[in-house]
Amino acid sequence: MYNVEEIRKDFPVLRQMIHGKPLVYFDNAATTQKPQCVLDVILKYYQEDNANIHRGVHTLSERATRKYEEARECIQKFIHAKCKYEIIFTKGTTESINLVAHSYGGSQLQPGDEIIISHMEHHSNIVPWQFLCEQKKCILKVIPINSRGEILLEDYKNSLSSKTKIVSITHISNVLGSVNPIKEMIALAHERGAIFLVDGAQAPAHTRIDVQDLNCDFYAFSSHKMLGPTGVGVLYGKEKYLEIMPPYQGGGSMIRQVSFEKTTYADLPYKFEAGTQAIAGVIGLAEAVRYLTALGLENIENYEKKLLSYIENKILEIPEITVLSQALKKSSILSFVYKGVHAHDIATILDHEGIAIRAGHHCAMPLMSHLGVDASCRASLALYNTQDEVDSFVEGLKKVKEVFKSVIT
Ligand code: PLP
């Protein structure tokens, strides 16, 4: 049984009042809250084990190194990677994508090669490819989406050619919530000899990830969007690609031998982990993964599905609202516009009711202009949200009508 009230007790931040009202946190696509066990392991690490890793022979360093490397194995199992050295720790999804664009793209692409993204990408999955295109004289192709907010697969198939070298697509849209058919898209890219990167920022807290089943070449995600701390992320990459990629950054830890004449690099995964890593953050991420695994991703997904359909039905009570996505496969994100009222005004009114939502372009400006809006509101749910919170949210939205009744026609 999924007991959301018991689960909520694990999240201390949820036990607070904002402007005299209980906090309703619906900004989970931006970052999720952290359970007590994650906070505890981070504190324990600093209180008992803090040391730099991989370099020291003293006990604290050995302990810190063991915990850091155990975290790598934990992530490997969580996403079902073949080996632990296919897990590279980064700062987050953004750095993971930049790493692939810079290192794989910079070394493997030639002028005239093509990179495919979609119309629903986050800036993190647009700008690094633009850098690469500029640097290597490559061509960026963008696959359109339909009016429901789904990738047009026929257009995707037609865009693929022998010139396509990289496809980089979001698993779940951070604006529309659309769950893309990435397994099918990966197989199609491979038929054309292209490699496929999945921007998984919005996925691992909501659905089970199996990188071997997907057969993706790279999968990028962020700890802070899956109950872990900020400042840490993961790049999964197939060994055969990571092996041929040059290091992304130079510094300590990533070398085998340094001289002024020539430097040789460490083996995977250390070749890509230059400098002191976010050790406590990595240990915290592993704890978040244990927490998610103990709850069960299937249980979380089923619960969130019901909550999404509840919020989608409830919001129909407000005719002034237009929901931006009708995708048939959707994760727990609801973006909408309110007739005649700016998204920031709605978010401010809701904040006074204790309700946190996101308003703006959600780091997806090209998508917003495609949708014909400059800003939207986004309520994004997580495993600890409840139907009662959805009710408060809809009641809060009804207050928007009262405040703006003179401008809503
Ligand atoms: N990709 C998607 C789909 C996102 O939603 C986000 C963050 O919102 C990112 C990439 C960037 O993640 P981060 O800021 O953690 O690097």
Written description of the protein model:
The chain is built from 14 helices and 17 strands. It is an alpha/beta fold. The protein folds into two domains: 137 residues, Aspartate Aminotransferase, domain 1; 256 residues, Aspartate Aminotransferase, domain 2 (3-Layer(aba) Sandwich). The longest helix is centred in the N-terminal third of the chain and has 21 residues. The protein is globular. It binds pyridoxal-5'-phosphate. Pyridoxal-5'-phosphate binds next to α4.
CATH fold label of the largest domain: Aspartate Aminotransferase, domain 2
Number of helices: 14
Helical content (DSSP H or I, runs of 4+): 25-40%
CATH architecture of the largest domain: 3-Layer(aba) Sandwich
How many domains would you count in the coordinates?
A: 2
Q: Major beta sheet, specifics?
A: 7 strands, mixed
The hetero molecules present are: pyridoxal-5'-phosphate
Portion in beta strands: 15-25%
Radius of gyration, in angstroms, nearest whole number: 22 Å
Shape: globular
Widest sheet: strand ordering: 4-10-9-8-7-5-6
Structural class: alpha/beta
CATH class of the largest domain: Alpha Beta
How many β-strands, per DSSP? Answer: 17
Question: End-to-end span in angstroms?
Answer: 46 Å
